[in-house]
């Protein structure tokens, strides 16, 4: 079964590479090229660890387990190119994610130590290479070099994904979160491998299934999530995934703003286009989430404008006191989707302090404010 899964993944990765390769090299998109190189290294790793290939490779090279250093080197390269891709994307947003050269130096050092430890250590002709070399110093150095860089690369990718997703469009943000989830599984795989080697070095007898079956499930599932997340922004629109993700994103933001909106409309009832529903009723309303989010953002801002007048503003949190009653926080008269989402995020960040102020004010008799009528 495992051989069939590996074969399927190799075929799938080859198809992805064929589709992305032409775009990456014709458009000269450096971030897309880095992703293509990362996928190429992952595909090479899958081929190297395929039983039908590594048996032939050992025989042809005359070096037992030569797939091990080659396969782990391609994994390290895949992690490095993933870092480069995200560094380039974050730089496009005007941020400073750190130097590529620093990451490159870490990769070179790790590969050098890994290859040196493999050459210096024993090379038994066994299927479970990790278990065989795990008790000697060369084996510890070999796995230590691999684990150190992979942990660094995976954590770096997770942090960069989180950083970039904060301002990304919904479909891209979902793809970045899938990549981060895959990296979490990858980091768990690396930790499990290193823990197994350390346990054997200490004379313990850890369960082989943890190093074998469980580690394989973690690594393959993590790989699928990373590939799915990285390709989703490119192939998602073809299956209308972008519309589905946009609707889900709008619904999630609408729900997160419910408590603040409910507290505000109870004090400024005239802001609401429709009567307030209970929390359960609001959650059950699934129609037109994008318009509902737009209305919710507008209504919250309208209520804040009323409550920021001099006679009410003394109890509002400091960040929300600035500005006159006639000043709109952000121009949403002709909003784009990104404008509404950005404003929703700002309100979500301010919601805890606003809710504390509103509830503190509501001790005793709630304050109800009517909006002025025109004419």
Automatic annotation (TrEMBL):
Q: Does the keyword Oxidoreductase apply?
A: no
Q: Which NCBIfam families match?
A: MAB_1171c_fam
Arranged from A to Z, the UniProt key words for this protein are:
Membrane, Transmembrane, Transmembrane helix
Q: Which residues form a coiled coil?
A: none
Q: Which organism is it from?
A: Vallicoccus soli
Ranges for the region named Disordered are 318-340
Q: Which Pfam families match?
A: DUF6545
Descriptive protein name? DUF6545 domain-containing protein
Domain of life of the organism in this record?
Bacteria
Which residue ranges run through the membrane?
A: 6-25, 32-50, 70-90, 102-120, 140-159, 171-192, 212-235
Q: Can the keyword Nuclease be found in this entry's annotation?
A: no
Q: Where is the DUF6545 domain?
A: 249-353
